[in-house]
Fold this sequence. Notes:
Layout (H helix, E strand, L loop, with lengths): L2 H33 L7 H4 L19 E4 L6 H14 L4 E2 L29 E2 L7 H7 L5 E6 L2 H11 L5 H4 L6 H6 L18 H5 L12 H14 L2 E4 L3 H12 L24 E2 L20 E2 L9 H10 L2 H15 L30
Parallel strand pairs: 1-3, 1-4, 2-3, 4-5
Antiparallel strand pairs: 6-7
Helix pairs in contact: 3-12
Amino acid sequence: MPPILQRLQQATKMMSRRKILLLVLGCSTLSLLIHQGAQLSWYPKLFPLSCPPLQDSPPRPKHMTVAFLKTHKTASTTVQNILFRFAERHNLTVALPHPSCEHQFCYPRNFSAHFVHPATRPPHVLASHLRFDRAELERLMPPGTVYVTILREPAAMFESLFSYYNQYCPAFRRVPNASLEAFLRAPEAYYRAGEHFAMFAHNTLTYDLGGDNERSPRRDGAYLAGLIRQVEEVFSLVMIAEYFDESLVLLRRLLAWDLDDVLYAKLNARAASSRLPVLRPAAQIRTKQLQPWQPSRKVDIMGYDLPSGDAGPATEACLKLAMPEVQYSNYLLRKQKRRIGVRARPEPVLDNPPPPRPIRALPRGPQGY
């Protein structure tokens, strides 16, 4: 036999012996493990290939105290409607403005607890327009309140502000033919700091958040950084209008609410931008409770209407789902006054509400305000 064939036969015999030896060792080890089943506890630690059994964690109770900073033209009215309906469903007290403040907390003044109707104190929920003041809100709201707000991409928000407040903001009224393009070409020609409602023409979100909207982020980056730190410190959630549904998922998870608690209908849509056939111009809405407030004759705010003749719990739920801010605020105020037994009488007028405090400069240290 040639030497090469002899070597191959020897190698084959050696491989066969090794296979037999490994097979014997494997069988012995398996037999040992079977008879020592209690020793198998090491297996998951060494080979974490399987998930531990799922355990149902107890559901968290719903969080009942929420302060929502309602910013302008950011889909905030839709969030407000969600909070109003939740509060009504759970018999919670909603902080509502004093009649002298109309349906906002005397905006654009700095917020004061004096602006809250006495029949709506102490509140569980706050969701009407105000200029943020942390100290005043913490004095009004109970400990453990969750603070939430919503922001929107500034360019889209400003376009909406310009058309909505065209007859209210002096800077916008000065623009020939109400042209947004003309204003953007030379805003300094129309804007006057300190005028009533001037904040709608210059850094509105900064103003709503309690900051100084006249401070330039280009010249004073430290101020803007401090304002951002304050927002991060105070607000547990900052919703984003462009990601509204995703923001609602986060809100629901934050507050441990049910899915039904965050159902919504899009409110305050403009006729020029809305393509939803279910929306109607305010003049065509027959149900007075659903007619949205119109800022001017040049702006047509759309709303919803309900079929006539229907009644029952489902119709009532739909009515609240589509009810505009002013009507819902008035409805809740009447309901809460009845609950505490307040007799119908003329409301006192705040002849001399607290003057707005000067805007404090943000410190440059890492602590923010």
